Amino acid sequence: MFLCLAFQLSTLVIFLFPDSIFQSSCEVVSKASYEKLKQGVAVRFHGEEGMGQGVVREWFDILSNEIINPDYALFTQSADGTTFQPNSNSSVNPDHLNYFRFAGQILGLALYHRQLVNIYFTRSFYKHILGIPVNYQDVASIDPEYAKNLQWILDNDISDLGLELMFSVETDVFGAMEEVPLKPGGTSILVSQENKAEYVQLVTELRMTRAIQPQINAFLQGFHLFIPPSLIQLFDEYELELLLSGMPEIDVADWKRNTEYTSGYEREDPVIQWFWEIVEALTQEECVLLLQFVTGSSRVPHGGFAYLMGGSGLQKFTIAAVPYTSNLLPTSSTCINMLKLPEYPSKENLKDRILVALHCGSYGYTMA
């Protein structure tokens, strides 16, 4: 017997054995009344006397770590080394969809009771939770080089290049490579200058959505038991990350020490000096928005900014010079952690443009 349930006034009390927390929690949460879980949860570990909010927080922390435990094959680490994406091969675990549903229940329950979880997901997975379509920029989290290739197709005239691309891709289907059409008849439709944007979007949807659709559906089935779509869709993917995982503490001095400059900027340049003066005066929330704007995540790696990851490995925060034109906003290349900062003529102008860019969120992004 791994667990038992008890009811204490309106609170559901969960008794757990420490050596089987994930499986036993999955069992009890799946069997419990969701209305009862909404009223309140208390957790007590076998052999321990404690039972309060501290123990509940510990329970959510343990489950956060177990959800991304490689032994369950539910999530894989993304290219940045700090965020996680549903594993397209999770079916190696025969109970994977039940566990994805449980993962959704735990995150929904945590959000309902305002408990933070110690997991950061890829931007695309937050979009899936919110029902927001993914785009080609999201591919960088799982395959940065492929994302750059898609960007190249969009940026260049492919009319006379002889690429011979069709509306189909080769993909691994249960260990064998198969040609999968991106739309009906796709194997015989040539990608052209006129339809390339559709091709890029369909490739993105295949890799980022269709490949993990059963996992997404199972997760959302559990999540929506506690947080209905109409409520969660009030937020964007950046706000959802902070709602689930909280506001990190950002050490601006460490950030400044581990920043590189390129395309004409030097550490001593007036624009760079103004930039750091502005950042030092930002609130923690605004610092998080800036970090999200440039790197795609609010998370600072363990060990600090020196260990910031890009699409191809360690990649420090970088500020690149861009020629100034009136009203030009800063932009970013998230797969290489690069802030493209125009050479503004004054500190006031720089501050205004940075704040506008931060509050415009993803609308200011470009890809390297």
TrEMBL record:
The record's Gene3D superfamilies line, in alphabetical order, gives: Hect, E3 ligase catalytic domain, Hect, E3 ligase catalytic domains
One GO-annotated biological process of the protein: Golgi organization
Report the EC number(s), separated by commas if there are several. Answer: 2.3.2.26
Q: Please give the PROSITE patterns that the UniProt record associates with this protein.
A: HECT
Ranges for domain HECT come to: 33-368
This protein's major location comes to: cytoplasm
The protein's annotated pathway: Protein modification; protein ubiquitination
Supply the enzyme class, top level.
transferase
Q: Which SUPFAM superfamilies match?
A: Hect, E3 ligase catalytic domain (SSF56204)
Q: Does the keyword Methyltransferase apply?
A: no
User: Which Gene Ontology cellular-component terms appear in the entry?
Assistant: Golgi membrane; nucleus
- Active site per database record: C335 (glycyl thioester intermediate)
Name the Pfam families on file. Answer: HECT
* CDD domains hit by this protein: HECTc
Cite the InterPro entries for this sequence. E3_ubiq-protein_ligase, HECT_dom, Hect_E3_ubiquitin_ligase
Q: Which protein is depicted?
A: HECT-type E3 ubiquitin transferase
